[in-house]
UniProtKB/TrEMBL annotation:
The keyword Transport applies. One of its GO terms (cellular component) is cell outer membrane. PROSITE patterns: PROKAR_LIPOPROTEIN. Belongs to the LolB family. InterPro entries: LolA/LolB/LppX, OM_lipoprot_LolB. This is Outer-membrane lipoprotein LolB. Keywords: Cell outer membrane, Chaperone, Lipoprotein, Membrane, Palmitate, Protein transport, Signal, Transport. It is found in: Cell outer membrane. It is a lipid-anchor. It comes from the Bacteria. One of its GO terms (biological process) is protein transport. Residues 1-28 form the signal peptide.
Length: 212
């Protein structure tokens, strides 16, 4: 294998080019924390557009990866106003593995045997039944590209949410947006990853059905 070496003059010419490339990379992201986003009018307009979505449905691929628990499924998420939402997980054969229905005053989970459970804490119920830790409260916002309760987040050059960091007792939740669906108005996430320590949740949305 041929080794390649650079002379001092060549290195001096490379340094400005490297600096230029690094500067170009930095232009593709806008770091925003806390109230700094108040000055970004495009981000403010995008938030308003997202909050006008009265209900939506999305489906796709779900992966939960942890040392002692690895789950791969298809998911269906339906979200309506007034704290109404549904999360359905099915196996490759289409059989229900978990069906969560949240309505005002009623939270119901159906397991893979058809048994129904009721509680006032859906995230805790899912953990007891499956061992999966899912931040449902903020996931509703993260799914559509809003930071939820997080005040530490980053936007990209298109004023779309790029990453979110939310403190939690077991460690920060870090959400990374890997792709957006440009066919929707407003643009909605297509792939995102949630990470808390060694715990990883991956979501890939195949399509969106939204109503405003």
């Amino acid at each position: 294998m041929r080794s390649r070496f650079f002379s001092t003059k060549q290195l001096l010419r490379l340094i400005p080019l490297t600096a230029l490339l690094l500067s170009a990379c930095n232009l593709n992201q806008i770091k925003t924390q806390g109230s700094a986003s108040d000055n970004d009018m495009q981000w403010q307009a995008r938030q308003q557009a997202l909050k006008k979505i009265s209900q939506y449905e999305t489906r796709g691929a779900f992966a939960y990866i942890e040392d002692t628990n690895k789950t791969y499924a298809r998911f269906y998420w339906q979200d309506k106003a007034d704290e109404r939402y549904r999360l359905l997980l099915t196996n490759p054969l289409g059989t229900t593995e978990l069906d969560l229905n949240v309505m005002p005053g009623v939270i119901e989970v159906t397991d893979n045997k058809g048994k129904k459970y009721y509680s006032d804490n859906p995230a805790e119920m899912i953990y007891q039944l499956t061992g999966m830790v899912i931040p449902l409260k903020n996931l509703r916002a993260w799914l559509v590209g809003l930071p939820g309760d997080a005040t530490n987040f980053e936007l990209d050059a298109n004023h779309l949410l790029k990453s979110v960091t939310l403190p939690a007792p077991e460690g920060d939740w870090i959400v990374t947006y890997q792709a957006y669906d440009s066919s929707t108005t407003p643009n909605l996430p297509q792939r995102l990853e949630l990470k808390q320590g060694e715990r990883i949740i991956k979501l890939k949305m195949d399509n969106w059905d939204i109503q405003q």
